[in-house]
Every structure is written in C-alpha cells, then in structure tokens.
Design goal:
Helix content is 33%, strand content 14%. It is of the alpha+beta class and 249 residues long. The protein has a domain at 44-85 and 147-224: NADH Oxidase (3-Layer(aba) Sandwich), CATH 3.40.109. The strands form 2 sheets. Strands 1, 2, 3, 4 and 5 form a 5-stranded antiparallel β-sheet that branches. It has a two-stranded antiparallel sheet with strand order 6-7. Strand 6 and strand 7 form a beta hairpin. Helix 3 (57-68) crosses helix 7. The structure holds flavin mononucleotide (FMN).
C-alpha cells in the first residue's frame, strides 16, 4: 500500500460534490425507486465462477483501503489482511479443504451433528450447513475458492473488544461492495476456516492474536451470478412507537 493511496482514503467528507449522497432536506416520497447505493446492496450476488484474468493490483489496493476505513467497536480495527494471488497456492489450499470436507461428509451423520436437541448442547445446529456436508458426494469435493484469481483473508484480531467477528463482517462487506462497484465478483468463503487444520496459517504468516476465520474470493465474473438468486425470508421485526408495539412482516 503506498502512502499516496492511504492519504487519499483518509480524505474526510466535505461540502464538495457528493452526487451519490442526497442532502438531508431532499426527502424522497414513499415508493420511490431504490437509489444507486441501495441497488448495489440489493443486486450484489455471490459469484462462484470467475474468468482466469487476474484482478489488477491497484483494484485490490482500493478494496483494501475501503476495508481499512470500516467501522469497528471502540475503533479497535481488529483485523489485518492476507492477499493470495498465486494460482498454485490457491489450488493447493482448495485441494486441502476439498479433501477435508470429503472426509467430513463421508462420516456418519451422527458424528457430524446430532439432530436431537439436548439440554446440555443447547439448540440443534442450523440445518443448512449440515445438509450441505451430508449431501456432498464423498471425494467429489465442494468448490471452495471457485477458481478465483485473488483471495483475500480478512484475519480477525482476537484482542478486539466486544465481538471482533462483527467488525470482520463489516470490513468484509465493505470490501465486497467496493469490489462490486469496480465491476468485480466476490464470494465469502466460510469453508476457508478448515485451513486451520493444516500448516496453512503458518505458511501464510498468521500468528496469534490473528485468526483465519474467513476468506473472500475476488475476480471478474464468468457467467451471471444473478441466476444464483436465493430468496430471503421476511423475519419478524418488532416495532415500538408511540407507546405501541406492532410487527413488521
Ligand atoms: C460468512 C459467510 C460465509 C460464506 N461461506 C460460503 C462458502 O464457504 N462457500 C460459498 O459458496 N458461499 C459462501 N457464502 C455465501 C452465501 O452462501 C451467500 O451469501 C448466500 O447464499 C446468499 O446469496 P448471495 O450472496 O448471492 O445473495 C458465505 C456467506 C457468508 C456471509
């Protein structure tokens, strides 16, 4: 990261032109179309198919810079990043995670997770990841890094106050939206955590207090991720106002 870019990122908002942000007194009527920022958040999809073309280095630096300015509890900034753009390394990591997942998916279901709630264990695990693991044909492997040319590991500094996982989610989301605005595709990779069962953390130079918890794949999209659209539930939202409670949804 050059000092120049770091300095650019630090420019505070001024009264200068900010076409993307409305003035607070420019109220929009109910039912107005989504604006550019809202649309970006609504239209971003996880991309699981990438072109071979590498992402230009300066794009990655911009993305990191947007991440660096993310909100964090107590401004702890409990993160640092590892960027991997070496195809052989990515393939090797992919193979390790695939093989480990194949081993886990061939284990009897009760070894993966108990369906029965137990008072000692608390509620049963969320059904989706367990089903995913059990349905993956052993040995076939789940694509993990999706053939992306660039992988960013946002590492969590476990000294962060409160819940540094939340800060990490914010930093990742901000980087993903920066990448989206640059015309790139991205996907969170929770399966990357499996790399912790190997010497990959050492090979990537990761030491305490930093932890490898997630990865983000980045590249130019091949295909159209809009086809991957998955429905969203309308979770109950309790709304308290004027001494009354109602539910939205
Ligand atoms: C923390 C986190 C971890 C994820 N891990 C994976 C993963 O390992 N592999 C994958 O293909 N998608 C992964 N995803 C992507 C989700 O499956 C995806 O966001 C969800 O299905 C909604 O689809 P959308 O992102 O296209 O809107 C992950 C998402 C999040 C937020």
């Amino acid at each position: 990261m050059t000092n120049q870019l770091a300095a650019d990122g630090a420019v505070p908002e001024t009264k200068s032109e900010k076409p993307i942000r409305r003035k607070a007194n420019q109220l929009i009527p109910e039912g107005s179309p989504w604006n550019e920022v809202e649309e970006a958040f609504l239209k971003r999809r996880s991309v699981r198919k990438y072109k071979r073309k590498q992402v230009p280095e300066h794009y990655v630096k911009r993305i990191l810079e947007v991440g660096r300015y993310s909100a964090s509890q107590g401004n702890c900034q409990p993160w640092r990043f590892v960027v991997v753009r070496d195809r052989d390394m990515i393939s090797e990591m992919e193979l390790f995670v695939q093989n480990t997942l194949a081993m886990m998916s061939s284990a009897p279901p009760e070894e993966v997770a108990s369906e029965e709630p137990s008072e000692q264990q608390g509620p049963p695990p969320h059904p989706i990841p367990i089903k995913l693991l059990q349905e993956a044909p052993p040995g076939m492997g789940i694509k993990v890094f999706h053939g992306a040319p660039t992988v960013i590991f946002p590492l969590m500094d476990s000294r962060g106050i409160g819940h540094p996982e939340i800060d990490l989610g914010i930093v990742g989301t901000n980087m993903i939206m920066s990448a989206y605005s640059l015309g790139l595709g991205t996907c969170w990779v929770g399966f990357a955590e499996i790399l912790n069962f190997s010497d990959w953390p050492q090979r990537l130079g990761i030491e305490e207090p930093y932890k490898l918890v997630e990865a983000i794949t980045i590249g130019f999209e091949a295909g159209d991720a809009q086809h991957n659209f998955v429905q969203r539930e309308t979770h109950r939202t309790a709304w308290f106002e004027n001494g009354e409670q109602r539910d939205m949804y």
